[in-house]
Write a structure and sequence with these properties.
- By secondary structure, the protein is α/β, with parallel strands linked by helices.
- It has helices spanning 16-27, 52-55, 71-79, 248-262, 265-270; strands spanning 8-12, 31-36, 57-60, 63-67, 83-87, 99-104, 121-125, 137-139, 150-151, 174-176, 181-185, 192-193, 198-202, 205-208, 213-218, 224-225, 230-235.
- The chain has two domains: 8-159 and 248-270, Rossmann fold (3-Layer(aba) Sandwich); 171-236, RNA polymerase II/Efflux pump adaptor protein, barrel-sandwich hybrid domain (OB fold (Dihydrolipoamide Acetyltransferase, E2P)).
- The two termini are 29 Å apart.
């Protein structure tokens, strides 16, 4: 078991919401490790540390994540002041490094049975998690009065399937694949498109903009997609600066995770913050 001088937290998933959590924990003094699949499907790629899997290193809000090949590489990256990312969909790295806690931020939105880890505190984000069933604490991810709240009993709210309404635009903000096929982008994240403009194609069939807005997120060109998969995120505010920043939702959930972690005396002690 490799030991580090940093108190380590593993985050399963490196999408935009999990990346907001990672930012909060990293800035609070934790060593952060992100485990991902070999081909992440994060749409808000510019605000997601999962992009390190493709790029080798990726930066969000001035914080860098580096793709690592071994536990020793992970330890070295964390000690050097960076987030470590690993392709490790089953979180096997928990057997190689001494983690204090695991945060499941994969946002699968259905119950998982592999989120309890012997000897480690575990936190589940959003739908599908229930205390003492598949995690030790749940952080609410649904927008509203409970966003970011820590549950010590019970479970998160059901997935609504509806994105936040921005400037009167709701479900149209999320662009989904109308068919199975190969996704090929025409535009890039950060570009502004007009109503009806072709954003991408799936096996030659056009994907058009449902309104004028900035492309806040888009899958990698060349990705094989299934019908109904989220492939893009369009924002009517037309502000390219929104594309590479963590959202208010992600940071709120990150605040809940931080609260849950610091409720544990062992974790506070590891950070050098003694308390009751």
């Amino acid at each position: 078991m490799i030991q580090t001088n940093m108190p380590l937290i593993l985050i399963r998933g490196g999408g935009d919401l999990a990346s907001g959590v990672a930012l909060r924990l990293f800035r609070s003094g934790f060593g952060v490790v992100i485990s991902e699949v070999a081909e992440p499907l994060s749409v808000r790629r510019y605000a997601s540390f999962s992009e390190a899997v493709y790029a080798g290193e990726w930066q969000v809000e001035g914080v860098s994540a580096v793709l690592c090949k071994s536990a020793a590489d992970v330890a070295g990256s964390v000690e050097s002041g960076k987030i470590a990312a690993v392709v490790d969909p089953f979180a096997r790295i928990t057997g190689d490094l001494a983690f204090l806690a695991v945060v499941d931020g994969r946002m699968l939105k259905h119950a998982e049975s592999d989120s309890l880890y012997p000897g480690m505190f575990s936190i589940g984000l959003g739908p599908g998690f229930e205390v003492r069933i598949n995690c030790d604490a749940v952080v609410e991810s649904n927008r509203g009065a409970a966003l970011g709240r820590v549950y010590w009993q019970g479970k998160a709210q059901m997935d609504t399937g509806e994105p936040e309404t921005v400037e009167g635009v709701g479900s149209q903000r999320v662009i989904r694949a109308a068919r199975n096929g190969r996704f090929v982008s025409i535009h890039e994240i950060g570009e502004i498109v007009d109503l009806g403009e072709v954003i991408a194609r799936i096996d030659g069939e056009p994907v058009t903009a449902p309104f004028r807005g900035v492309i806040r997120g888009l899958l990698h060109s060349g990705t094989a997609v299934a019908q109904g998969l989220k492939i893009g995120d369009l924002d009517p505010r037309c502000d390219p600066g929104l594309c590479n920043r963590a959202s208010d939702k992600a940071l709120a959930v990150g605040g809940g995770v931080l609260e849950a972690l610091l409720s544990r005396p062992k974790i506070r002690s590891a950070l050098g913050r003694p308390g009751k």
